[in-house]
Amino acid sequence: MIDLPYRGSGPYCYTHSLAMMLGSGAPGADVLETVTGSPFGMQLIGGSLPFFDAFGWDPDLGIGEALDVLGWRAETASEPDPDVAFARLVESLADGPVLLGPVEMGHLRHQPGMTGPIGADHFLVALDADDESVTAHDPQGYPYARIPRADFAAAWRAETVAYGKPHTMRTKFVRHTVVGDEAAIVASLPRAIRRLSGENDGGLPPGTLGNGDAALALAVRIGDGCDPELRGLLIHFVVRLGARRTADAAACLRRVGRDEPATVLATQARLIGSLQYDLVVEDDTRAAETLRALAPTYEELRRALTSS
Fold it and tell me: What one-character DSSP code corresponds to residue 204?
């Protein structure tokens, strides 16, 4: 099969938001996504919510880890009082854009079809705020989106997001060390190995499974008949994101001479990407078979990273 890096649309909201904050010197989206640590694993949160991302990982952690290996720092603040938080946002915008998130995507009514909370996290870059609205670059495809203040306030509380704190924002981005893309990719790999080994930062919901165990458990759920809610999550978000980030990581690891783990990641990307059609047409038997084929690749990836 031809091995070609993917370019195109995809739900890289925190990656594109971070790129906007880092400015003209930001690495490409493929590098940023890789150094967040997201591509290295799979998890089934609470035994039911699947994501093709690292065990114990979430975007909030990933942004911090990316800044760390890239030689940047930023101030992160969360404030329970919504009025105090909004006042801080307005004050911070006087010095430049502000990275916001996680927020609840379902409250962002400028996105067609959004009418209330759906439990989906999202990230934005705020550009302006006043008593009536917030203007933001929404990397879902909406530059200069105007968000009425009531909708913004509901989204920023993030009450229905499974991680993070309310009213979180990142400001004062400063590059303290010049780190090349290749060095940052290499520096991110020890964390990837730890998560593929089953280590995590704790605080996971009971029943959460990681990596091969997660793939096998999801295969059982799908093989027994995929319920509509799970199918919708997989076909509209989880599969397309998982396939892209593993493909990006494969390209990045080839870039730094880690050919063996890159080959495993490319295999994972092809397997995950192939799920899309089968799940859409409800060929759940074949989708379950693909997940069972995917399961052992996480241990293969750990071994390949450890020995490379």
Answer: P
